[in-house]
Amino acid sequence: MSILGTRVIRTEDPRLLTAGGVYVDDLREPELDGAARVTFVRSTVAHARITGIDTSEALAQPGVVAVLTVADMTDFPPPPPPTPIDPDAPPVEGPMPLGGPWSEPLLAVDKVRFVGEPVAMVLTDNRYQGEDAAELVSVDYEPLPAVVTFDDALAGQTLLFDGTDTNVSQRRDGAFDDSAFDGCDVVVEGDIVNQRVACLPMEGRAIAASWKDGKLTVWASTQNAQLSRLILTAIGLPPDAIRVVAPDVGGGFGAKIGVDREAILVAWAAKHTGRAVRWVESRSENLTAMTQGRAQRHHIKIGGTADGRIQAYRLDIVQDTGAYARMSGFLPSLTVLMAPGVYDIPSVQAGYKVVMTNATPIAAYRGAGRPEAAATIERAVDWFAAAAGLDPAVVRKVNYIKNEQFPFVTKTGAPYDTGDYEGALDKVLAAAGYEELRAEQRRRREAGEVKQIGIGLASYSEITAPDPAAGETAKVEVHDDGTATVYTGSSAHGQGHHTAYAMLVQAELGIPMDKIEVIHGDTDLIPVGVGTYGSRSLQLGGTAVHKAAIEVKEEAAAKAAQLFEASASDVQLDTEAGLWHIAGDPDKSLTWAQVAGAAEGGLIVANVHFTQERPTFPFGTQLSLAEVDTETGKVTLLRHVTADDAGTILNPILFEGQRHGGIAQGAAQALCEEILYDADGNPLTSSLADYGAITAAELPSFELVTSETPTDLNPLGAKGIGEAGTIGATPAVHNAVIDAVAHLGVRHIDMPMTPERVWTAIQEAKKASAK
Amino acid sequence: MSKVSLTVNGKEITADVEDRTLLVHFLRDVADLTATNVGCETTSCGACTVLLDGESVKSCTVLAAQADGRQVTTLEGLASENGEMSAVQKAFHENHGLQCGFCTPGFVMAITSLLKENPSPTEAEVRAGLEGNICRCTGYHNIVQAALAAASSTSTASSTSAAEAGK
Questions:
Q1: Helix locations, A95-149, DSSP H
Q2: Same domain, residue pair B6 and B62
Q3: Contact B44/A699, CB-based, under 8 Å?
Q4: Backbone angles phi, psi at A79, to 5 degrees
Q5: CATH number of A497's domain
Q6: Is the CB of residue B92 less than 8 Å away from at least one CB of chain A?
Q7: A739 and A707 share one domain
Q8: Do A699 and B139 touch (CB under 8 A)?
Q9: In this structure, are residues A734 and A635 in contact, taking their beta carbons and an 8 Å threshold?
């Protein structure tokens, strides 16, 4: 029996469980002996001109190696000249960080634009000295008004960037035509905020660097070493003078795609001072200066027939991108792409504006633009169902893209590959006991009980491997001792790639997993790789490994045939025993060690760069059951039932683990997490004492239902599962809580649905109904 | 500077450290035991949880000097001398209770302590008991499963040994 599809426990675990992982702060490499600690001096104001920096007092402190400001960066290559911007031209479109007047500096030059922006860096012998000295760097600020809200940014009274006349850095007009809603029996409009949240990997950002003999070695907590190396060439070195190593990485969730400006500075400091350096950010730095996610405000309009057919949907997005446009229009363009979700809607109109604010930059966070789309269409469908007086499950069924319509291109241009939306919904409704839950809801409502329940549904489709043409690399080697080594361009940070890829090789070659080593995240060993983000690793990286193993097998078959003095077509591999045979002669066999030993250099090797023709579109339905105490507003999640379909499942344990983590993060956004600023742009959630990260005490165990609809875009049949849980969970929980109090007249509650917000919504609905 | 002497995983370690040295930094920088991680600076996340005289504490909020003369157990001290994982470690492995691994040492120590206080907890008791630890990867589902599995394996083991002792 093949190992594929079976519950294999992880090979990564024993080391992590007995010795702990080796994260950047744990590295004891000889090159990092005596490494100086880097401490950043960060802006304490949201928007100001810098009128002076005095480092003298800090420099006099014990243990201080250097205090570096922008004035020290004379050995940096000059920045490219600013791109002239035609004031009449529309803002640029595209996923890249913006240049020209919108450019993000490394250390602040003459202005700071968010609390937490790096202004200077202090190098000390140890970490405590760094904290002491950094406090003594004196920065003079001339404060400017802060742009904090969506409306502040759109009003443009205060501009973040000189040389511009707007805070709107990019836009895509939706070409809105209201006639699409002509003839609709039911039309609903409203605003939905998808609030700013922290990515919050448990290990924050961390970088160590050493400069020796003309080569820079950088250890980075990153989701992709190869992209990090490309970014680090900014310090004026060619790629081959830089080695980037990703050691164990304590979570990423999109915020560690590549490396940030601090990493470039740390790498430069190693070269500039000649001393090895290490920077490990504190949690307060992490919560103010690591990129954050979501931060979109939506205005929607949805309309359809009285019997539940949605005819038209319009989505108008404002994306707060923070002080610097790291991904600029890319996130809202994914929101536009995924706007109609799982529904076959005849007219879909969507557009966005990207605005700059004096806040932490926004970039990818688990889902990156797609959760925002799902959250809003799923709220909109519930609004529409409520207005039409129909069951939300029925409205979803009526409007789904049907199985026979795949492949299906949506009105926004998304080429959905495969799906069984109704199947996933039916499985969830059956597993949850939907009718019984509705009956219990009716009973509690009729009895006027204090604790009411709500049932929230969310159906979603999402795009995974959104950059399929970039593909992924793999090298598989079989050695003359019978072991195998896999080199992958994917970059594991908790997902279990080492287990998954070893399973693929064992399945193809019959070499047992404990004789297979998987290596990732070292640009000297793997110069070409794309990394792990966008739920791409199994379908692209895994397929590359699978194909490389097949190529190794083909070459080994030819070698075995020579050794057997037989024709290659008569040679067979017994993948259970890992032995080569000749057809019809089971007694004669060769081991992998013998076959590889006969190859040139005692090695059989294959390199594959797999690219996929199109992205894949996983889908599913999640049902959340929430209980609301109508006297206090407190929400308790009672159950969460999901069918998340990401094609063929390689290892159910890993698959479930990705779903569990995603569901928790999605529920967290709905219930308790939000990054907040005061009116002056001061962060109010810069520690875990203030930021409401979800814990075990606020969640139930999850009930997972299996749905498995393969894609035909790769030979594994696999789509991505890294982000699906998050995408489905936020609207399912959101809808559940509102459903619990809908009979009291509550139509909407913005996230996070804290007890205060739920209680206030109930009071306002009571007041409105009393009028 | 103060002289501090701790017994860490059964081994005595003495060093002169700054008065303000946190226990977690003593463990990481002086004892060179790096499994214990720092995940916040507000006693919120529990990544730094260790046992101090057998009870779980967050080592980012304890001064090394406060641990002077006391026993500290870290993740590295849980497996038996022949390398066999403890019941909690085994349960994490078998139940996929970890992904990136960064919060794991803290969770393993917190659960080790929790099961000592309450050898057969309910799911609700496990969840309430883990409120001071944050994991961002697992959604806690399999951590809770691991804690319950470890509880049932140790209670099975102890009832078996009790039965054998009674023979």
A1: 127-135
A2: yes
A3: no
A4: -65, 155
A5: 3.30.365.10
A6: yes
A7: yes
A8: yes
A9: no
pLDDT along chain B (167 residues), means of 10: 96 97 97 97 96 97 97 97 95 98 98 97 98 98 98 69 44
Instruction: Specify if A38 maps to a domain.
Output: yes
Cβ pair A376, A332 in contact under 8 A:
no
ipTM score above 0.90: yes
Q: A570 and A632, same structural domain?
A: no
In 3D space, the residue among A418, A504, A342 whose CA is nearest the CA of residue A710 turns out to be A418
Length of chain A: 771
- Kindly state whether residue B146 falls inside one of the protein's structural domains: yes
The answer on pLDDT for A455 being more than 90 is yes
Q: Which of A19, A202, A697 sits opposite B102 (nearest CB)?
A: A202
CATH number of B97's domain: 1.10.150.120
Give the structural domain span for A398.
Answer: 388-464+615-770
Q: Report residue A755 CA to chain centroid gap.
A: 28
Q: Can you spell out the DSSP letters for A315-370?
A: EEEEEE-TTS-SSTTHHHHHHHHTTTTTB--SEEEEEEEEE--SSPPB---TTTTH
Please choose, from the candidates A342, A469, A479, the residue with its C-alpha nearest in 3D space to the C-alpha of residue A410. Answer: A342
Co-location of A691 and A623 in the same domain: yes
**B136 and A661 in contact by Cβ < 8 A?**
yes
The rounded distance, in Å, linking the Cα atoms of B143 and B94 is 11
Q: Given strand B2-8, what is the order of strands in its sheet?
A: B11-17, B2-8, B71-73, B49-52, B55-58
The separation between CA A679 and the C-alpha centre of its own chain, rounded to angstroms, equals: 29
Quote the CA–CA distance of A336 and A353 in Å, as a whole number.
11
What average pLDDT does the segment A315-324 reach? 97
> Does the pLDDT at position A548 exceed 70?
yes
Domain count, chain A: 4
Residue A542 and residue A492 share a domain:
yes
Among A379, A421, A374, A373, residue whose Cα is nearest residue A401: A421
C-alpha dihedral sign at A374, A377, A378, A379? positive
The answer to whether position B16 is within a domain reads yes
Amino acid at A13: D
CB contact under 8 A, B39 and A203: yes
> Is B134 in contact with A695 (Cβ distance < 8 A)?
yes
Cβ-defined contact of A661 to B138 (cutoff 8 Å): yes
Radius of gyration of chain A (CA): 28
Report which of A527, A541, A507, A531 is spatially closest to residue A609, judged by C-alpha positions. Answer: A541
The range of the structural domain enclosing residue B152 comes to: 87-166
Which residue in B18, B27, B40, B48 has the most chain A C-beta atoms within 10 A of its own C-beta, making it the best mutation to test that interface?
B40
CA distances from A713 to A51, A406, A612, A646 (A): 57, 13, 7, 12
Q: How far is CA A743 from the centre of its chain?
A: 36
CA gap A729, A622 in Å, rounded = 6
Nearest CA in chain A to B124: A697
- B46 with B26, same domain? yes
**pTM exceeds cut of 0.90:** yes
